[in-house]
């Protein structure tokens, strides 16, 4: 299911039960890849690829509020995408997430109709 609001398209990424607490899964949609996280504060999402090297963050480890890249162990703050440890130094793009009826919905940019 997809719904468009305020220049966002809300797409179902997974069921809430598909992600354990302190974990991450990969979600691919419309040629883009995302990482969807579940931490104590709730569900979050970001671009799936590390900003340092081309490693998918869903293959990394969630530690507290941070995702550790599987390639060089750089860490990002999950809610904000802020780099937390070298070698990462470029912010990770984050996306809005909401939970409805046991599903995790990801707000991705709606395509321009022109």
Supply the key terms.
114 residues, mainly beta, Rieske Iron-sulfur Protein, four-stranded antiparallel β-sheet, 12 strands, 51% strand, Rieske_2Fe-2S, Non-heme iron oxygenase ferredoxin subunit
Description:
There is one protein chain. The protein has strands spanning 2-5, 8-15, 23-29, 32-39, 42-47, 61-63, 66-68, 75-77, 83-85, 94-95, 97-100, 103-109. With 114 residues, it is mainly β. It has one domain (14-103): Rieske [2Fe-2S] iron-sulphur domain (Rieske Iron-sulfur Protein), CATH 2.102.10. The model has no long low-confidence stretch (mean pLDDT 92). It comes from Paraburkholderia panacisoli. It holds the Pfam family Rieske. This is Non-heme iron oxygenase ferredoxin subunit.
Largest sheet: 4 strands, antiparallel
Radius of gyration: 14 Å
User: For this structure, what is the CATH class?
Assistant: Mainly Beta
Query: Whole-number average pLDDT?
Result: 92
**What percentage of residues falls in helices of 4 or more residues?**
under 10%
- Note the total helix count: 0
- CATH domain fold name: Rieske Iron-sulfur Protein
Tell me the total number of β-strands. Answer: 12
Summarize the helix and strand pattern as letters: EEEEEEEEEEEE
Roughly how many Å apart are the termini? 23 Å
Bulk shape:
globular
* CATH superfamily membership: Rieske [2Fe-2S] iron-sulphur domain
Strand order of the largest sheet: 1-2-12-11
What is the number of independent domains? 1
Unreliable segments of 5+ consecutive residues:
none
| DSSP strand content | over 45%
At CATH level 2, the architecture is: 3-layer Sandwich
Class from secondary-structure proportions: mainly beta
Cofactor: [2Fe-2S] cluster
Keywords: 2Fe-2S, Iron, Iron-sulfur, Metal-binding
Pfam families: Rieske (PF00355)
Family: Belongs to the bacterial ring-hydroxylating dioxygenase ferredoxin component family.
């Amino acid at each position: 299911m997809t719904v468009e609001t305020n220049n966002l398209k809300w797409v179902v990424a997974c069921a809430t039960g598909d992600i354990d607490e302190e974990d991450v899964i990969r979600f691919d949609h419309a040629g883009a890849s995302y990482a969807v996280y579940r931490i104590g504060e709730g569900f979050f999402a970001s671009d799936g690829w590390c900003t340092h090297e081309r490693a998918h963050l869903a293959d990394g480890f969630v530690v507290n509020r941070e995702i550790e890249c599987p390639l060089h162990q750089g860490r990002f703050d999950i809610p904000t995408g802020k780099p937390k440890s070298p070698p990462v130094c470029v912010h990770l793009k984050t996306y809005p997430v909401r939970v409805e009826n046991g599903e995790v919905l990801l707000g991705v940019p709606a395509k321009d109709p022109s």
